Amino acid sequence: MDCIGIIGYGHMGSMLVNGFLSSGVLGIDEVVVTSRSRESRDACAAAWPGIGIAATNRELARQCRTIVLAVRPQETKEVLSEIVPVMDGDEHIVSLAAGIGLAEIEGMFPGSVTRVVPTITSTVGQGTTLICHGRQVGMHDALRVEGLFSAIGNVMLVGEEELPAATILSSCGPGLFAAIIEELAGATVRASGLTPEQALALATETAAATAAYLRETGETPGDLVGRVATGGGVTEVGVRGFRERLPEVFDEAVAAMLERYGAVGK
Ligand SMILES: NC(=O)C1=CN([C@@H]2O[C@H](COP(=O)(O)OP(=O)(O)OC[C@H]3O[C@@H](n4cnc5c(N)ncnc54)[C@H](O)[C@@H]3O)[C@@H](O)[C@H]2O)C=CC1
Ligand SMILES: O=C(O)[C@@H]1CCC=N1
Fold it and tell me: Which of 116, 172, 258, 260 most suits a substitution to test ligand 2, by most atoms within 8 Å of the C-beta?
C-alpha cells in the first residue's frame, strides 16, 4: 500500500498529520501513524477518526512505502534498526532528524532516503520546509515528498552542506524570533506602564507587519530602518545599540547552535 507512515506523534508528527489531512493533500486512508506512547496513539485516533494507527513501528513499516521518521534525533537510529529488518528495500525513508546525515541513514538502510526539515510555522501554512534528497531517490518519490510539503507551506531544495545554516533560519528561526519578541515586549513592560498582554500583542503584530512589509515591498531591512529611523529621532538610538551589541550575541548563538547541530544525534 502506497501510504505515508509517520513514526512519532510529537510536535512535528502531529503537525504533519494535521497539515496533510487538513490541506487535503492526503486522504484519511493514506496515512498511518504510530508513536511510542499509547496516549499519543489514542490522541491521534481521537483527533482523526478513521486514521490508520499502527501498534508498533514494525507494523507501520510493513504497511507503508513512505516512512517519515518524526522521532528525536537521539531516537532515530534506534527506530531505524528496529524497522529495517522488516523492510524490503523499496521504501522511501524521510528523516526529520536534525544533525543525522544521509550517509548515516543510508548506512543502515541502503535505499531511498530524503532529509526534510519542517518548521512549526507550517501549522499556519507559512514558512519554508527544507528538503534534501539522497542520491538514490527517484523522481517519483522526490516529487511526492515535495508535493506533500508544498501543501503546508513553501519548500526549498537544499544541498546537505547547506542544511545546518538553513535549519537555523527556517526551523529554529520561529523559536529565535519568538524569543526576540518576548524580550522586546518584556523590556517595554519593565520600562513603562504597559501590561504584558498589551506589549506582547503590539510586539507580535509589529513583527508580522514588518515581515509582510519586507516581503511585499522587496526593500532590504537596511532600507526599512532608514525609513523608520528619523534623523535625530527615537528609533536610531535603539538601532545603534542593536548594531553595536547584537552581532556578537548572534554570532555566539549561531556558533553554539551549529556546534549542537553536529552533536545532537550522537
Ligand atoms: N520541533 C521542531 O520545530 C522541529 C523538529 N525537527 C525534528 O523533528 C523530529 C521530531 O521533533 P519533535 O516533534 O519536536 O519531537 P517530540 O519530542 O515532540 O516528538 C517525538 C515523538 O516521538 C515519539 N517517540 C520517541 N521514541 C519513539 C520510538 N522509539 N518509537 C516511536 N515513537 C517514538 C515520542 O513519543 C514523541 O511523540 C526531531 O528529529 C527534530 O530534530 C525538525 C525541524 C523542526
Ligand atoms: O531545536 C531542534 O533541535 C529542532 C530542530 C530544528 C528546530 N527544532
Answer: 172
Residues 23 and 152 in one domain: yes
- The two beta strands, 92-95 and 66-69, are parallel
| In-domain check, residue 164 | no
- Answer whether residue 167 is part of any domain: no
Q: Which domain holds residue 123?
A: 4-159
As for ligand 1, residues whose beta carbon falls within 6 Å of it are 7-13, 35-37, 40, 57, 70-73, 75, 78-79, 96-98, 117-120, 171
Atom of ligand 2 nearest to the CA of 73: 3
Instruction: Give me Rg for the CA atoms of the chain.
Output: 21
Per-residue pLDDT of the chain (266 residues; tens, 9 = 90+): 579 999 999 999 999 999 999 999 999 999 999 999 999 999 999 999 999 999 999 999 999 999 999 999 999 999 999 999 999 999 999 999 999 999 999 999 989 999 999 999 999 999 999 999 999 999 999 999 999 999 999 999 999 999 999 999 999 999 999 999 999 999 999 999 899 999 999 999 999 999 999 999 999 999 999 999 999 999 999 999 999 999 999 999 999 999 999 898 77
pTM (two decimals): 0.96
Q: Examine the domain organization and report whether 251 and 195 are in the same domain.
A: yes
Q: Note whether 123 and 24 are same-domain residues.
A: yes
Does 170 contact ligand 2 (Cβ within 6 A)?
A: no
Q: Return the beta strands (E) in 41-179 as ranges.
A: 52-53, 66-69, 92-95, 112-117, 128-133, 154-157
